[in-house]
Amino acid sequence: MGRVACLVLFAATVLQLGAVVLLPGLPQFEGKAFGARAVLYPLMMLLVPAVWALRRRGRGDAAPWGAFALVMAPFLVDVTGNTLDLYDRVGWFDDACHFGNWLLLCSGLGMLLDPRRRASRGLRALATAGLGALLAVVWELGEWWTFMRFGTELDGAYLDTLGDLALGTLGGCVAAGLVVLTPWRASERAPREG
Length: 194
Hints:
membrane, YjdF-like, single chain, transmembrane helix, mainly alpha
């Protein structure tokens, strides 16, 4: 089921990105670096499963498809939000995405931290929340580099960036709590190394 979810998330994202490339000039995509997104989003969606596969190669571990799906989902949410012009038409959509997408992303990444290792729940929570804050900063730097520095959307950019950082970090913190408080099913755990 998780593998199918990953395939659907990836395909739906790539199809929308392909449509943006093939149908340029749609107003909801102008000035939002969709050329860069068309290349980077599929790569970022595949990065975590690829790293996991390289690290676990030959160990016989079952892939954590549910965690991978959580990591991939924010990319589909972002592209779909732009496709449906929700970022410009719905005032709170961007804020909801910064919180919700970081909640999804960090939940998936936090699930990949093996709970059977000796690290305490507090350390796992701190790692998940810290990763959320770090990724929020990296995301905002990426937004600035790809389209903010060229003068689009400069009005109110400072306040928007601060809000996005706070919401992304909050989403990462909530994910941290969920990761350490939610019991894992045995099928979601990788076999013990031995």
